[in-house]
Amino acid sequence: MERPYQQSKRHLPMNQLDRAFQFAPFGALEGFNGLIQEKTKMYARKKYSNAEQEQQIMRQLKYLQTHPLQVDVSYFNEDSGYYDHVKGMYKSIDLKKGRVTFEETSIVIVNIREIKLLNKK
Fold first, then answer.
1. At residue 89, what are phi and psi to the nearest 5 degrees?
2. Residue 60 burial (CB count, 10 A)
3. Taking residues 75-97, what's their average pLDDT?
4. Exposed, middle or buried: residue 73 (CB in 10 Å: 0-12, 13-18, 19+)?
């Protein structure tokens, strides 16, 4: 362990790129990279909606008041600091507090990024 490094007399020193190619068999995990990229979208910094997006969210919430449908809501979770999802039915809205409740989760309306309709029953 305490001996000095001896340069090989048979092999030339390998550059970094060639050294990296040694690990090419791990290229099978490349598809995993796409999954990681998809997951990192949830952990992005909070993005603020423009007026058009806010109006669309409000239209969707008003529609859900009269049409009980299963939805998937993507929203910024202030407790964790990341985007999160809740799946369920619309329960109530409190415009004074600016909050909407889906199942047991209360969400600040301006933190809602997207509302998707789940399979119709």
1. -100, 145
2. 17
3. 88
4. buried
Confidence (pLDDT) at 16 = 81
pTM of this prediction? Answer: 0.60
CA distance 38 to 8: 44
Under 8 Å between Cβ of 100 and 93: yes
Positive or negative torsion for Cα 72, 89, 103, 56 = positive
- How much is the pLDDT for 10? 85
Q: Which amino acid is at 45?
A: R
29-56 per-position pLDDT tens digit: 667 777 777 777 666 677 778 889 999 9
- Proportion of the chain in helix, strand, coil states, percent, rounded to 5: 35, 30, 35
Which amino acid is located at 101 in the chain? T
Alpha-helical regions (H) of 16-97: 16-21, 30-40, 51-66
Mean pLDDT of 89-108: 91
Cα of 16 vs its chain's centroid, Å: 34
